[in-house]
Specification:
Length: about 130
Amino acid sequence: MEILVPVLGILAGITIPLGVFVWLYHDQKNKRETLIEISKNIQDSAELEKILKQLDDKKEPVNHRRSGTITLFVGIGLYLLGAVALGSVLKGVGLLVGAIGIGTIIAGYIFPNDSALLSKAVEEFEEK
């Protein structure tokens, strides 16, 4: 019975990533099959291009300032939990996570990802 927990932990570590991989594969496969069926039935190429644009997964750029702020406050929460209840190890983990959050916030200011911010940064640089 003592060996059951470690074995289940190892199996979970293997099956969860494999399950996610299979799930994502079948999700993309269904999208491709649907697109093929739609393209067989549509005669107008403009209509097909319109549908393709709608199906395109548009990914927004990562907002480093937002994610850094969230990470910073998670670190603060971990530090406070360590200070109040669980000890110095969790304090160290909280400080580490908080430092990562601060670094991510700084990266958000150094490397802007929005086109308006990029053009503003270029204009400021050209003024110098």
